[in-house]
Amino acid sequence: MHNEFKNKKITVMGLGLFGGGVGIAQFLARQGAHVTVTDLRNADELSSSIKQLEDLPISYNLGEHNEADFVDTDMIIVNPAVPKDSKFLNVARNNHIPIDTEMNIFFKLCPAPIIGITGSNGKSTTTTLIGKMLQQTQRTTWMGGNIGKSLLTHIEEIKPSDIVVVELSSFQLEELINIKKSPHISILTNISPNHLDRYPNMDAYIQAKKGIILYQKPEDYTILNYDDSELRKWEKECKGRVLWYSAKNTLTNGAFVKSNNIALSVDGQNMTVPCLFNAKIPGVHNLQNILAASCAAYLVGARASHIEQIVTTFSGLEHRLEFIREVKGVRYYNDSKATTPESAIAAITAFPVPVILIAGGYDKGSNFEEFARVCARHTKTIILIGKTAKKIKELILQNKGTQGIPSIFISNTFHEAFQQAEAAAKSGETVLLSPACASYDMFCNYEERGRQFKNMVQAL
Fold this sequence. Notes:
Elements: E1 9-13, H1 22-30, E2 34-39, H2 47-51, E3 58-62, H3 68-71, E4 75-78, H4 87-94, E5 99-100, H5 102-109, E6 114-118, H6 123-135, E7 141-145, E8 163-167, H7 170-178, E9 185-188, H8 202-209, H9 211-214, E10 221-225, H10 229-232, E11 241-245, E12 254-258, E13 261-266, E14 269-273, H11 284-299, H12 304-311, E15 322-327, E16 330-334, H13 341-348, E17 355-359, H14 369-378, E18 379-384, H15 389-400, E19 407-410, H16 414-424, E20 430-433, H17 446-458
Parallel strand pairs: 1-2, 1-4, 2-3, 4-5, 6-8, 6-9, 7-8, 9-10, 10-11, 11-12, 16-20, 17-18, 17-20, 18-19
Antiparallel strand pairs: 12-13, 13-14, 15-16
Helix pairs in contact: 6-11, 6-12, 7-8, 13-14, 14-15
């Protein structure tokens, strides 16, 4: 037990549809804290999250926030999705109430070394690959974080000899800076404009990401993507030992490609993993994810056979370039997790043939210029939905000049968009849902968007 929470009044702000606050609420209630959960959504909307807490003594204040919960309390735990400038958090600060996050508490209590993964794209795939590679070894491996599983509820079971793999968002990293903690091994996949609806500018977003390296120690490791121009500048700021990975260049220290094998060169040790011929996940971005994961897994004990086993069998995450089925010679892929232009570009260019693309959605301040250029070159037909549809259409029109392709449609509903895509596709072609945008304007999250797409494909 962690007595610092016993009999304390603690407010958990933001339970979340994903159940982002469920783990911390369970943990605190089991530690004997008096927990109040508050969320702007009502009990109906949050029913699946509340159901997971039904056997615990927790009070709820739903559909609104009350100032009393932020003043008459010993501590506030805030969900990463809550905006920094929330007036309720300001009330708490003015009353000198400590504010913390689930991930911060986990970092403070976790007895095992932590591998942390962040970046604009590729985080979840890289995290999952590392977790699976390490599960092949003798070492007990825990995987969670931003990927959707709370590890705090298992904190009593985690031993110092175990290894923990966590995906970290920029919001979680910003909070870790406050407690001056960074992972033992930190991986950065890439940096591109993201969440600019939440950050004043790109520089603020980059500063948040730097939380993953700021408090490392000399014996720690940082694994950086050599193919990313922003990350190349980071080496001088890293406190630990830097290893690179690259899909394009041969490196002296890190992970790279050598005649279709993964080559690892770490602290004078070299290892070759012959497996890329049979890699299941397509695209150069996934090759980078595989290299990053192999490098990290190798550092904590994975050997060639463990890495090879996963690279040749892992077929990807749900909603991430996920092959659904082939109907009348047309292949359907669900890439609903592509909520940025960069991840959608990676998906579109992973296919050798022009695709029929469904894209668009909520606007989180991304720049769609490069996305539009790629669409103009690599797609046959584009069906746009959501808030960003008109903006993206204009940009593609500027890029395609007088040529007839791609043809561009704007659909009012997701169902209509799907019907247009199906009608446009001929045998041998690919229909791809890769929105380049968040989903909040039409769906509750990217998973719901992906499930609806898969249901429509299964119904064909």
